[in-house]
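Might you be able to review the protein record set out just below?
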Amino acid sequence: MDKVIEKKKWPPKKIATIAISAFFFVFVVYKIGFGDRSTKLNVDSQKITISSVKRGPFQEFIPVTGTVLPVTTRFLDASEGGQVDTVYIEAGTFVEAGDKILELENRNLHIQILSQDALVVEQRSLLTSTHFNLEQNRINLRRRLLDQEYQIQRLRRLYERRMQLLEQSLISQQEFDDTKDEFDYQLKTQELNVQSYKQDSLFQKVQVKQLELSLVRLEQNLQIARKRLDDLTIRAPISGQLTSLVPETGQSVAQGERVGQVDDLNGFKVRAAIDEHYLAKINKGLNGKFDFAGTTYRLVADRVYPEVRDGRFEVDMGFPGDRPNGIRRGQTVHIQLELGDLSEAVLVARGGFYQKTGGQWIYVVKESGATAEKRRIRLGRQNPQMFEVLEGLEPGEQVVTSSYDSFGDIDKLVLKK
């Protein structure tokens, strides 16, 4: 007789299956609710750059390129236009102040000077003739005054005698009155002549003064014209090197046209072109330095040109101490221009990460060296080697400073060796 076998409700296999399913469910729930949900990317640590954050001396500076120029450059501009007649000195020659460089020919200016000279001669002749005529008039007036005085003296004596004769009744009243009338007439005529003489003298002085002033103006104009003639000869304004001379013999030069320049080689300066981004930070007195023939030389900003052209502005820098021997005009030097004083700061090396993050975050390597996680930071000043760290990093920490372009928006890097 067969025996009935009772079937178990919870066999071990079923219990194991349920337990495994429950564990898996709990694990999934834990991962969803409490697990690490950050995105990860495996990265070969040999293909990235890891730098240490450190504390040390920091100075903000920028590299700029400068060109050596003479401290003094005098340009040669044609004060008068004309045709180049003679070139006395070739470009590159050393000259002394006053040396002739080139001669211009201007026939119209010569004609103008001859005309001006003729006007001066004519005015001088007119002044001489006027002086002569005025002197003649003065003599004639004085002669009339003398004649008048003679007549008055004669009539005075006649008047006095007849007055006596009238008192003695030796002449008639009519004869006396005639004499008296004529005497009075001559006295009044004398007064008019004196007044006329004074007026004529004043008028003559004014006339002569006007002619003399006119002559002075004409002579001044002639001197200016002759000075213009002298300006046709272009001379060296200073001693130095004639570094440029443009026109050739027979070439026409317009008034005001630049024909060359003379450089004073007793001193040099460096002119640097700087990106307009730094315009607000560049002032007179900033220091810089550059290496030349194995020696470092100091520079000081003497003049800032605020005009921006093609995104750049210029700065002139002088030598506060020794200048390099053998330096020449036009040479290029690479300057380290200091924008601030030396100070202690937390520093991180420059790298390609900045192009991706703008300095707002960085990957910080964990102490284990296995991973690097994204962290918010704040950077301050910078130079070509370092960034100043204001917030987010501590000295001794390791960070990834190479380019982040291939990482996308990953939160954590898993570093593989």
Summary: The mean pLDDT is 83. The chain has three domains: 37-59+343-416, 61-66+262-338, 109-230. Residues 113 and 223 are 9 Å apart (CA to CA).
